[in-house]
Every structure is written in C-alpha cells, then in structure tokens.
Design goal:
The chain has 323 residues and is an alpha/beta fold. It has 2 domains: 1-114 and 283-323, GSPII I/J protein-like (Pantoate--beta-alanine Ligase, Chain: A,domain 2, 2-Layer Sandwich), CATH 3.30.1300.30; 115-252 and 262-276, Ribonucleotide Reductase Protein R1, domain 1. The chain is built from 7 helices and 9 strands. It has a 5-stranded antiparallel beta sheet, covered by helices on one side. β1 and β2 (103-111) form a beta hairpin. The termini are far apart.
Length: 323
C-alpha cells in the first residue's frame, strides 16, 4: 500500500517536472523568437532607411543634372543673342534656390575665362610661354605668394629636365617622393599639391584668380576682358593701376578689342602682344549645382566647353565642400 502511494506521488512529481521542463523550453523558444523578431525588425528598419536614402540621393543627383540642362539652355540662348560675354548677362547672375518636388536646387554658372588658366604657362606646342610665366609670377606676388613658385610649376609641366630660374624643380627635387615631375599639362587643380613648394594654404590664396582647364585644340585659351578678375588683368599689364582697371570695367561690354589698343596702359611691345591673349567672349564655363532632398545634400561641378552653341563636357565632380 505504501509502495503504491509512493509510486503515485512519483508519477505526479514526474508529470510536474515534465510540465516545468516544457514551460522552460517554451519560454526559451519565445525568447528566441522575440530576439529574432527584434533583430529582423531592426534589419528591416535599416533596409528601409537605406532604401529611403538611396531614393533621395538619386533625386538629388537627377536634380543636379536637371540644373545642368537649364544652365546649358541659358548659355546657348546667350550665344544666340550676342558675340560677347559679360557678368551683367542673365546666365552670370546668382539665382535663388528653387523647389523641385520635395527638394531645393540651386545652380551657378561661372565664367572660367575670367581666370588665368595655369596651363597657359605652356604654349600650344608644349613650350614655355615666357609672357604668361611673367604674368603668373606677378599674379602670385599680388596674392601674397612667392613668385618663384611659378618656376617649379613650369618645370612640373615642361618636357625638359632643365630647372627654370632660381626655384626650378625638375626630377631631382622629388628625390624624397614616390613620383617625379609630370612633364605634361595639369589635369586638375588638386594636382598642384604634388608640385614642389605648393600647399593647400597657397592654393587657397590663388583659387579666386586661377583655373586649371584641360588642354584642348578647340579651346581659345584666352582671357575675357569683359569678365576678367582684377588681379589677373593687373598682372597682364604692369603699367595698369586700380584707376585704369575701373575705367576698363566702366567701358564694358566690349564687342571688340579695338578700343583697348590706344589705352594708356598699353605701352610696350609686350603689352601689345598681351592683347592677343584677350577676348570679348568666353568658351569655358563651370556649372555648380546644389540639391537638397531630405538628408541628401549633394553638390556637383561640371565643366563645359561651348563651341558654336554646342557643349563638350570636360569633367564632372561630386564636391564635398560648398561653392
């Protein structure tokens, strides 16, 4: 009798143990499922955020391309209206941002012919252009920089291995670098950081007066008298002063260079030669587009060569700084 009672109690205890074990298993499974659900939910949230970011990023990129199309249309219309380019024209004005769907887009057109193209230090045959080297030296001085740095820049681009002037820098100057002088024209502005003696502070000092434009047989390689920066023109004509420059600005727009030939600041034979580097029109333009869609903030720069109303793309760059 006692044994039967004990056996009954044992069976009851076994059942309770089984129920407890099953409950623990169930709770464990619930915890696993809950953890999986939480992880899956988090991953789904990340996927949705990535998809949303990809969507707004694509919208921002397309908006930049759309503003490029608008810029081309403005420049094409301008070419049909007259044969000169000036900063008073519609394409050169700062335009306020405009709304596209749920985003904002702004576009700015910059005349690259108003700056000194550093590739003009070499002529079309790749030889040193003595006149433009002198201009660059004076420009660097006006910007508070060492004029002799121009010598190192010329040596970076010219084909020979003979240092130019007192601060020339041919291959021997790069003995501690993993590269040597390029012996070819510049491709981009950032390339200046490779040139002996150049740094970012120096580049920042000259960035509002110079440009680097790819060498092209179709480009005019001229500086527009109707848009030229003050320091650039003063560097081209040593006899010119601030008052003379103000007179030049007052006389804009120029439809030809004829009036300038009798100017007071055109004195020497070199001054008269320098007039051949001027033009009244521009064929090189930078287009900077800025688009904001949600958290997507995109700035792009496009370089265009305008030829007979058509445009030849030179480069496209996604910028990480604001224009």
């Amino acid at each position: 009798m006692d044994i039967a009672i004990f056996s009954g109690k044992t069976m009851i205890l076994d059942r309770e143990s089984e129920r407890g074990a099953a409950l623990i298993i169930v709770l464990g499974l619930v915890a696993i499922v809950a953890a999986w659900a939480s992880t899956a939910g988090y991953e789904d949230m990340l996927l949705l955020r990535r998809a949303d970011h990809a969507l707004v990023s694509a919208k921002a990129e397309l908006a930049c391309l759309s503003s490029l199309t608008l810029a081309k249309a403005a420049l094409k219309q301008d070419a049909q209206e007259n044969k000169y380019d000036t900063l008073d024209e519609i394409w050169a004005q700062d335009m306020p941002p405009f709304a596209i769907d749920d985003g904002l887009v702004s576009v700015k057109i910059i005349d690259a012919n108003r700056y000194l193209d550093l590739n003009m230090l070499l002529d079309k045959d790749g030889k040193v252009d003595v006149l433009m080297v002198a201009v660059a030296r004076r420009l660097f001085s006006l910007k508070g920089q060492d004029a002799l740095l121009v010598d190192a820049l010329v040596d970076w681009m010219d084909a020979d291995d003979v240092p130019l002037g007192l601060n020339g820098a041919e291959n021997s100057s790069y003995f501690d670098q993993s590269y040597r002088a390029k012996n070819a024209a510049l491709d981009r502005m950032d390339e200046l950081l490779l040139v002996h003696g150049f740094d970012r502070q120096m580049m920042k000092a000259i960035q509002d007066a110079v440009v680097v434009w790819p060498v092209s047989k179709d480009a005019k390689r001229k500086i527009n008298i109707n848009t030229v920066e003050k320091d650039v023109l003063l560097s081209m004509f040593p006899a010119m002063n601030d008052t003379d420059f103000e007179d030049v600005v007052a006389g804009r727009p120029y439809e030809s260079l004829q009036k300038l030939k009798s100017s007071r600041w055109v004195k020497s034979k070199q001054d008269k030669q320098m007039l051949s580097y001027l033009s009244v029109a521009s064929d090189r333009f930078l287009v900077r587009s800025h688009a904001i869609f949600g958290k997507a903030d995109r700035v792009e720069e496009y370089a265009l060569l305008r030829q007979r109303g058509k445009f030849v793309p030179q480069w496209r760059e996604h910028l990480i700084w604001r224009p």
